[in-house]
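@channel anyone free to eyeball this complex?
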Amino acid sequence: MAAGFLLVWFSFFILLFSTISVAKIAPTFPSSIIRPEQLLLSTKHQLYKTKYFTQTLDHFNFNPQSYQTFQQRYLINDTYWGGAHKNAPIFVYTGNEGEIEWFAQNTGFMFETAPHFKALLVFIEHRFYGKSVPFGGEKVVAYSNTSTLGYLSSTQALADYATLIIDLKKNLTATESPVVVFGGSYGGMLAAWFRLKYPHITIGALASSSPILNFVNLTSPYSFNDIITRDFRSESENCYKVIKSSWQQIGDTAKQPGGLHMLRKSFRICKNYIDADSLKNWLYTAYAYTAMTDYPTPSSFLSPLPAYPVKQMCKAIDNPTTGNDTFAKLYGAANVYYNHSGTATCFNLADDSDPHDLSGWSWQACTEMIMPTDGNNKESIFPASEWHYEDRVAYCKFHFDIEPRPNWITTEFGGHDIHMVLKSFGSNIIFFNGLRDPWSGGGVLKNISKSIVAIVAKEGAHHVDLRFSSKEDPQWLKDVRKQEVKIIAKWISQYYYDLAHFSA
Amino acid sequence: MAAGFLLVWFSFFILLFSTISVAKIAPTFPSSIIRPEQLLLSTKHQLYKTKYFTQTLDHFNFNPQSYQTFQQRYLINDTYWGGAHKNAPIFVYTGNEGEIEWFAQNTGFMFETAPHFKALLVFIEHRFYGKSVPFGGEKVVAYSNTSTLGYLSSTQALADYATLIIDLKKNLTATESPVVVFGGSYGGMLAAWFRLKYPHITIGALASSSPILNFVNLTSPYSFNDIITRDFRSESENCYKVIKSSWQQIGDTAKQPGGLHMLRKSFRICKNYIDADSLKNWLYTAYAYTAMTDYPTPSSFLSPLPAYPVKQMCKAIDNPTTGNDTFAKLYGAANVYYNHSGTATCFNLADDSDPHDLSGWSWQACTEMIMPTDGNNKESIFPASEWHYEDRVAYCKFHFDIEPRPNWITTEFGGHDIHMVLKSFGSNIIFFNGLRDPWSGGGVLKNISKSIVAIVAKEGAHHVDLRFSSKEDPQWLKDVRKQEVKIIAKWISQYYYDLAHFSA
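replying in thread with the prediction:
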């Protein structure tokens, strides 16, 4: 039976490369489509203009291939900018593993604070995603083999940002404008690392929900699912127990004659495909995504969600009208995630659409981003299982014929003893984490120094602080954003003081 | 005539890729062979053991080629080490553009301070130099074209050091031993950058004579030769004037019938080759190298030098017995550099031996290391000339069919407004500079913060602090080393305190 469970998670891991599951190892979790506030904003002004920068393929080597270039997309909004003559600030979003428009549209914090800071807004797309694809802009070429995909890496992305920002400032004759970088999830990791590696280009970073410690031998592989467990258990003990015991029940049912048919009926699965593992993954995805985006206000990801969706799921499970019918309870919970609008008539377990172009993450997860999240101890809401590095290796060998470099990220960016290392090195980083977010286990949760600080929101989910504000936002969320604005303001005023007193 | 002068420096620049001239753009200047103190040391103990590490060819990409490996040489001495169980420190020399043994033998400071600190000594060879050559260890292969040479870069070298150090500490079960990095010249640049980019791997850097600011738009292209001018002029105004006026005289003489023969006779040039430009370059090399290694005690580079060799050169020039014979005066000066032993019977202007394997620098100077040093204003001891980036481009196009990336180093490592950028970012770097050293113009000469400090020795030359000590060392040099030891001791004791109080 243990082997059966292992198989479940192993096959889930395989599925990681279909769209739905990509978020399991992709730290970014999309948060919402444009909300009413944004629409208001975007009707008043165009949200951004799209531009392209001719980027170097390989910054670190000098062979002929390295000199190839590609068109890197960035979005720019100068509506609020105070201008180069005033050295007004530039806010840069360090794009993550998806098309940049999606991140821009889900980072209302930058749009909403820009007027106060008179900031220029720039959102840079990560190489190999969206429209920023090397080798002629053709994904079919760039993703065709490891020789071309090899240039998809975090260090190249950071060097892209450095190069683009310097060039942009020069073109705007804004070389003395301070740059603040922002990012959520993997984009937050990049923002934090960018401040650490390129302090001459940015004066500070807001790294939201950036699990920079979620790597091998740094964060427990149980952490991710432990937090999902805690989220659901905090709503109701019954909710936790029903989900926890359901995996066995699904497996047992599937093995019985007519069992799959019954499962299909119970969960309204379309007639295309069903097996026990796919169903389990489909449910896992719903729980994990809902935990990540357990926002206090209605939001939208791939499909819309109500406010506090984990609570809504548990309400469905605890609903007394479903009696002892576990599948009816789970179906109710799944509906919160997959069918909040109530319009779906059946569900497709093998949906592999990728509207936000996240697929490159599978490559990153097979090279640098070895972020263990699949472990489950016996208290887990999911079946107990160990995380095995070898499984990742086997997967990556099979799919890409590539060997991961599991220690590279900590070699390049550190992580071990981070409080000791950075307490007197570096400055001006905000690490925001919401403790409802499964990725928060790999985040920086304690202040490191006076100016490398952790903001932790007990009720917060995945980069909730970066989202557009709403009238219904709870006080704690307003406070978080206020605190962030205050800190960023301090960086900027310190910069202007330094510019006046220390500049060459 | 101006064009003629320009041609002189342009042809010198071409010659830069012969051994003698490589040092003009190669910041490292070798200092001495083993001195008596060292011999004593090495008879008591073996100076070091030679080891090899299997290194990744390309840290930043993940294409199949990147996974190739090569054998990287490092030297290790554990004679003085307090051991892993005591978390005793590890001193690492970040090797520069030549074979590592040569640098180890010229970095007596590490050997002499190791007993006090109970430090393990490690000297890591830079990729593509000495015995650390990718592509099968064959220079003839690795240097054969730009596809292979492309992997020779500073960022790859730093990542090599990071990878090797982490692995070495793990193998020694010394993961908690503090690492201090040391380097002189380009090795010093690497040491400083290593501390800035890899603070999780090293607690501090002694960056000796590291011209990290000697890049385009940061340091004046006149600076290098201005300092040589100042060095000679400080000895005697006549010395300066004789050298300054000699270039025209050499040129004029060469053009006269029998002029070259006369020059050959005057300078005892062997019968293989002479022209005016080669002779000028030969003299320039003598002045530049002597300025760089204007040490207060006898030393050896490619050939032995007396103490205060600039003074000795000017003595030869000011020697009243040579009357008005400029060439006799210059010959006397050249003899200080080329023939201190007095055994040479004639000189070879086209000597292209490369005993310390420096030739890879020509590639680095054509890709990343665009360090302008060739400008001469009208006060210069050399003929007035402008530094033109286009000359470098033309050279590099011609020799390697490669385009330099003149802004890459400042993009990756910074440099502009360094005092402002680092005053509250980073810590624990010593920038030593001797003001007699032509490279000091591109160094950090003022304290940046409490722990990023500049030690400046008015009488010092190129990384004199790192050399083996001698009984004849002047007090200022003893003081410099004492100060460095004191600062390093502070880093280490702070580390042990932090380890006890902040370690995870």
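from a first look: Residues 475-502 of chain B form the longest helix (28 residues).
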